[in-house]
Fold this protein.
Amino acid sequence: MALRTIESLGALTGKTVLLRCDLNVPLQDGVITDDGRIRASVPTVTDLVGAGARVVIVSHLGRPEGAPDERYSLAPVAARLAELLGAPVAFATDTVGPDAEATVRDLPAGGVALLENLRFNPGETSKQDAERQEFAAKLAALGDAFVSDGFGVVHRKQASVYELATLLPSAAGTLIAAELDVLNRLTESPERPYTVVLGGSKVSDKLGVIGHLLPKVDSLLIGGGMLFTFLAANGHKVGASLLEADQIDTVKGYLVEAERLGVDIVLPTDVVVASKFGADAEHLVAPADGIEDTPFGAAGLGLDIGPATSARFADVIRSSKTVFWNGPMGVFELAPFAAGTEAVAAALTEIDGLGVVGGGDSAAAVRALKFDDSQFGHISTGGGASLEFLEGKKLPGLEVLGWQQ
């Protein structure tokens, strides 16, 4: 069965549509520091408004542990969404309580409302099917139809993602449809050469992706904290750098498998090594096999790929027709260790083909480094969901909408 899209819901004029978005944006002292997910949600909201629906948006933000917590209120998101839409967004101070009911009741056709954080209710993320079902039923009572457009949560079996879609006529929004189109291009018939760039802190988070994609790619570039487990697998000392010793044997297996398949795993040849974790740390560039030969010795901490590696990675990326990138190359939040991530991002803007930023920290990095979203072929809104898709896993929030991989 194919993914159900909004057209399958028929005429929506005068109907109340519950819209599940992923508005889980970073906040600092109540100020949104990256509104990418809000902007990504606007097209579906606009489409539903244009169809004459009353649009009631539901989302989570952070991990408030099933109880109201002012730090995770969606009120700032409602204000930003209103700015982007150029129209009022009513905000309900609860999710399924009296204020939500009144807000939905008073919403005019074509109006938009945002309910308070779903995760203020323990039923949203409960491990008990009955508790999720009960909460979903209360949400369903507020609307006539359901549109799921929070791609960043489709790998979760949660009340507003899964159960709600079984209780109302349901379909995927335009954002989910766009994400799936890109991910299918990465997995079904990618244009070659096909390169995957993986970074981030833990190699264990990426093992499934590596195993699933090795037979499909031409090159695999390894950076970030995970690179040190690969270096250790090749017999190199890594000082105090992040290391998952229990994954070394698995990584050795992937190195052997890559050689058998003819896949080029490109590992760093140089690393930026620091005396400590901090923007003010002493640091220098060292060969990847000489981290402990620096003045910092065994206390040396690798925090970024080096300039020679950055140049090599950029060359491979620019010569590719399809590139998927997930995970920073270093601690990009600290200026001395951002160059590797910036080099990868810059190269991704220059390819003659499809360049995909795989959500999560990668998306945050390109924006923090002042790249514009329009410079990339696609920026995913769901890092974890993208990775699980590429691992070939079942995604309950998509399957309930008719999608099958």
